[in-house]
Specification:
The chain is mostly helical and 284 residues long. The chain is 75% helix and 2% strand. It is built from nine helices and two strands. It has a two-stranded antiparallel ribbon.
Length: 284
Amino acid sequence: MLDLLTTCADMIPSFAATLAQHETHEAVADAAKVSYDWGALLTTSGLIALLTITALEVVLGVDNIVFIALISNRTEEKYHAKVRTLGLFTGATIRILMLLGLSWMFALDKKPLFHLAGEPITIKALIMLAGGIFLLGKTTMEIHHKIRGVQHHDDPANPKPALSIAGAIGQILVINVVFSLDSVITAVGMTHVVPVMILSVLFAVFVMVAFAGIISRFINKHPSLQILALGFLLMIGALLIAEGFGKHLPRGYVYFAMAFSLVIELVNMRYDAMRSKAAAKQIH
């Protein structure tokens, strides 16, 4: 399992570099360029775009999977898989609706509503700011709960109440709007063929559903990875707030930092496991 995740983490920087090359806020330039030609899927360029965008959607979905995994683990165990699947398909539905309403989406970043600290604030900027603040607040609360749980030694007599399915889906829905907006902007930056983008989103969701359970269980099993995942979400929240204020940071750097941290943590976990195994052999 560690070898699989290490290999996946090593692949993230190369995908992130591709993402950094294509990600630009001029990507959503003109609604007139949008095509709904399904025949484009049968062309070589359409297939290449489909595979490339699917890969990038999976990379962009990493933070989404981490958030959904942490939230689903707060519900009763029998609901974990249901919450993960509902959360991911809710995100896919939002993305597809945004793609079908690209003309509306283009308008989100056109006309400023007001200016704040010298920066124009559009509807898209407000969504990014709200999502970033929500993510920072939610992640900080989760870290607080983790620390408080350790301090109280997770007393079985006073278990922490499980999160309801409605509460979990509600929180996932809020952050899905933000992540979906970012995902769609990246997709439009690579192709203007809507069917290609829709299929890419669906394929990416099926990939994420297939691996979300494994990632969720692995994160839940290792407390150090839970804190690392929360640290990732803090970084993404800060990034969203910066983007809301018009400070556009290349995502490639962010995903490389996340991948590097993950690889170091996985190496550390392997080292601890080998040391524990060696100590057990000495005892026997």
